[in-house]
Backbone:
């Protein structure tokens, strides 16, 4: 993205909003939709049309939002939210060989070797998806896959042994700070659970939604899941924690249980776009060298638009 004339925030937004909106509008996500549906005692295919509509609308809004920002930055770099970090980000991501004497990015030749590297990079993710979904892989196997891919990439790019090892160590050094950030973010959740604070909030939440009309119930449920998602960023953890309690309450106000599942997953996906206790958010921002306060500044208008879409769709469905 930097080489193409954009900024680091654009690159981060493409990755995080793409994956985040996919989670927000999950259709068959086994770690969110399926677990929550099982806990609510409904088939995970119930409500899939609503989720598809939600996914498409939210995705289109995010595409427009990011492209609008990116085009502004390309035409005038001073509009970048991270404009003051432009030079340091170019130095970090492009390295000195890709910069001219003034520190501006130079066009990089798309050689055969670089094409092969991109193919290997993409193929690694394809293999990872197969391994996780069908091969029973998890962290150890995925780590081994990417180490093997990095060695192959080193051979394709004809790096010397010294260059390869020094580059590998530099990459590991960049990840050390990310690992510390992830540990701190996870520690907040551990303290909340150990202090039984999450249980107290959940007990209060159950009483808050009891007896509300259908539209009020589903929107109150969405709001409560937003709050709880800050405390329990794990989608599967939040599903197991809240669905057995919240889903049966829907029966008393004639709201289908699958709509409670949709309210949960959309709330969790929305919050985890900015959640400071979510390792993916803090780790991704650290890797992209985008300060958290700048990410919030970029995201807040978009979050308001997404909330309006989600609340409108949930309310219409609840009133039918």
Residues:
């Amino acid at each position: 993205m930097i080489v193409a004339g954009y900024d680091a925030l654009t690159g981060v937004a493409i990755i995080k909003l793409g994956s985040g909106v996919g989670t927000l509008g999950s259709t068959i996500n086994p770690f969110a939709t399926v677990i929550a549906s099982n806990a609510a005692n409904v088939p995970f295919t119930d409500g899939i049309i609503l989720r598809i509509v939600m996914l498409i609308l939210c995705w289109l809004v995010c595409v427009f939002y990011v492209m609008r920002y990116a085009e502004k930055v390309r035409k005038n770099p001073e509009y970048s939210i991270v404009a003051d970090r432009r030079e340091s980000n170019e130095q970090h991501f492009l390295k000195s060989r890709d910069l001219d004497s003034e520190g501006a990015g130079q066009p990089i030749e798309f050689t055969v070797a670089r094409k092969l590297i991109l193919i290997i990079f993409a193929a690694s993710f394809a293999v990872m998806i197969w391994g996780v979904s069908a091969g029973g892989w998890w962290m150890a196997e995925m780590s081994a896959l990417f180490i093997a891919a990095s060695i192959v990439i080193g051979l394709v790019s004809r790096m010397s042994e010294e260059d390869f090892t020094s580059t590998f160590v530099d990459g590991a050094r960049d990840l050390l700070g990310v690992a510390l950030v992830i540990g701190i973010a996870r520690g907040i959740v551990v303290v909340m659970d150990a202090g039984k604070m999450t249980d107290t909030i959940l007990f209060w939440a159950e009483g808050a939604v009891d007896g509300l009309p259908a539209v009020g119930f589903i929107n109150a449920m969405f709001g409560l899941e937003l709050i709880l998602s800050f405390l329990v960023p794990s989608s599967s953890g939040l599903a197991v924690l809240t669905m057995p309690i919240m889903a049966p309450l829907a029966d008393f106000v004639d709201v289908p249980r699958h709509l409670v599942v949709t309210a949960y997953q959309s709330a969790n996906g929305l919050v985890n776009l900015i959640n400071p206790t979510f390792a993916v958010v803090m780790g991704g921002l650290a890797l992209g060298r985008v300060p958290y306060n700048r990410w919030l500044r970029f995201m807040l208008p978009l979050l308001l638009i997404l909330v309006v879409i989600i609340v409108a769709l949930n309310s219409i469905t609840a009133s039918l």
In short: The two ends are 44 Å apart (CA to CA). The chain has a mean pLDDT of 84. Residues 8-319 form one domain.
